[in-house]
Amino acid sequence: MDRVKHPIYSHSKRKPQVNDKKVLESPNPSQERISTTYSDASYANSIDSSFQSEKSLDANTFFPTSKSGSKKLQQLIAKSRPEDLSKIIESISPKIADLMIDLYGNYMCQTLFHNCSASQRLLLLKAMRLRLIDVAYHPRGTHALQNLIAMTSLKEEETIYREEFQGKFVEMSKDTNASHVVQRLLVTLNNRYFIIREFLGKVEDLSVDKLGVCVIKKCCNDPEIMNEILGSCLMLIQHPYGNYAIQSVLELWKEEVAYEFIGSVSGKILQLCFQKYASNVIEKAIKVESIRSSIIKELLTDEKVLELLNNQYGCYVLRTLSKDCDLSYKESFLSIVQLGLKKVHSQKLKPLWQEITDNLTLH
């Protein structure tokens, strides 16, 4: 008996013949073939069918740690019905903290937070509560957590944040990522005193920190924080970061802090006008009427205006003062400036001098 020779499979240029009549009659024969890989459409259809069949979702199957997986799940979340969204949340809630710090998963989390209800959001928050600190310090997790905090509306949510972050707010405020979480909590929560209470006695320390001052600016409207800032006014006004805390207090409290501010800087305004950071605060203070009148009385002398005209930062202060001073002062102010300009010579400062005289001349 002859041995049966099996055909040798090789790449052939000859087109395969299709003998199936049903395939030939199909408008798109390729759709009739069995595919061993998922296309985007088939992936989405498989998810939809899983919902329709009311089968529970497998978290491992839909764990969006890839770019395409995250994108598909975001699209699915956006078009899901409430009951379908509940299935997704039930599936991924045990791993929500890992998703929030994942390169692609954090985008899916942000989409999920914007689409879920308050009760669903609380469920997710409870699932991750033991890892809230880790997520807050993570460069990707912080963005997802800020989105979650921004939609806080339940007392239970506020309670979880208070219990998990308690005693850590000062340290968090100085961290590149966690400081933004603290700022978001200060802006969003109805009861934020549990955060402010931890800052009391440490306001000066936070105000001179690059990130801490951003947190302090968010709570300058609290009287206790404001009092601590003004208590260190003369030091903070000259600090590269602390000066922003003083500016925020002046902008928010205006006339209410005028007496304390004037008491701190009185007799030193000229020296402060020569400094890069302090001069910015003096310009901000000029916007407050009662403080402005005290600054004018201290600076409007021939000798002091001459010194200010010779200094770049001093010219900035004079320019702001010339814009905002009352008409009753403008005539005397202009005569002092004109007298001083006869004694100074600087090509670099000439444009500023021109602005000052124009502001005083054009009533």
From TrEMBL:
Region named Disordered: 1-39
Tagged with keyword Repeat: yes
Single Gene Ontology MF annotation: mRNA binding
GO BP: post-transcriptional regulation of gene expression
Keyword Repeat: yes
Residues in PUM-HD domain copies: 30-360
Start-end of Polar residues biased regions: 27-39
Keywords in alphabetical order: Repeat
Residues making up the signal peptide according to the UniProt record: none
GO cellular component terms, A-Z: cytoplasm
Pumilio repeats: 91-126, 228-263, 298-335
Comp. bias regions, Basic residues: 1-16
Any matching Pfam family: PUF
Protein name: PUM-HD domain-containing protein
Organism: Stentor coeruleus
Organism ancestry: Eukaryota, Sar, Alveolata, Ciliophora, Postciliodesmatophora
